[in-house]
UniProtKB/TrEMBL annotation:
Assembly and oligomerization: Homodimer. Within each dimer, one monomer is responsible for RNA recognition and catalysis, while the other monomer binds to the replacement base PreQ1.
Gene name tied to this protein: tgt
Name of the protein this chain belongs to: Queuine tRNA-ribosyltransferase
Annotated Zn(2+) binding sites: 310, 312, 315, 342
Species for this entry: Candidatus Coprovicinus avistercoris
PANTHER family, per database record: QUEUINE TRNA-RIBOSYLTRANSFERASE CATALYTIC SUBUNIT 1 (PTHR43530)
Amino acid sequence: MDTKLFSYDIVAEDPTTHARAGVFHTAHGDIETPIFMPVGTKATVKGLLPQTLEQLGAQIILANTYHLSMRPGSELIDNLGGLHDFMQWHHPILTDSGGFQVFSHGEFFKLSDEGVRFRAVDYDGSWVSWTPEDNMAIAEQLGSDICMQLDQCPGYPAERSFVERAVELSSMWADRCYKAHTRPDQALFGIVQGGMHLDLRLRSLAHLESCGDFPGYGIGGYSVGEDHETMFETLEPLVSEHMPKAKPRYLMGVGNPTTLVRAVAAGVDMFDCVLPTRTARMGTAFSSEGRLNLKNARFTKDAGPLDSACTCPVCTGGYTRAYIHHLVNQKEMLGGILLSMHNIYFLLDLMRRARKAIIAGTYGAFVNDWMASEGAADF
């Protein structure tokens, strides 16, 4: 990795919380934090053109190493110019390791110190073997700006011994990923695991810090079945007291507005989640009034915008709640597209406003105002 390409500058720190505003520099542009990153699992944020994502203000999007390695294959993407050209998104891209998807295959995977062997049950059913070195080779062929180490993500609840073994494997694999990763224009992030056990989280973090100079850290193994209060019992002290200050901190797979607001206060910089687009396809919208189910009959004759406080292209473009209610109930694809646009913009704008408050030194008041608002009812 070329350390000149990847650095993190802290622009401001809030005086009453652990929130900070920063800039992470990459080969395809700068990322202003805190930031929400829309998820484009199979090299597309479902239903949205890259130009639309730019219009909404997206700075970086995600793609999934597992799914892209299965179809169309990382070698093909590499031969076609890499992921940026393949999907026509010429801004930063983060690819996760695919580990979460592999370990969600239930009984169809086998773990060893060497790596993981799994059955691609959601594709052709073939058995596939991955070592950390294989995973890094795929990531380098995809050509994302940020890639993640191969790790094991234990669900919740889980026996402590199982979580401890996941930390052991993830740490071992982090060493090997760090040594195997050679692409200079791609940053490799380590991932902190440990479930809901703070001591295991600290053990994981200490190992990552000892094995190499990672330019950033993912925080994995949250939002895997636990309630949000349980998550914050360990997340808050981990981030605010123990994680390196000069590196970006990426909370993986978390995307409801209230959790983003609270996690920024703890010192988290980056987020991703399929929630805004997945719930949009089910007819659900984030709003300043809380979460809205546009399938509900109460919207049948509602001539208002989705959210009168929102300035997204949907809310300012004349699309009424009644129209979107109609689209959703008739299963028209435009309903999911419009709601996806709104939901992604909602989270991007929330992080823009959070950043502004941090720079102004008023993020503590921002959190209090949010928690007292109707918008906090987003679960």
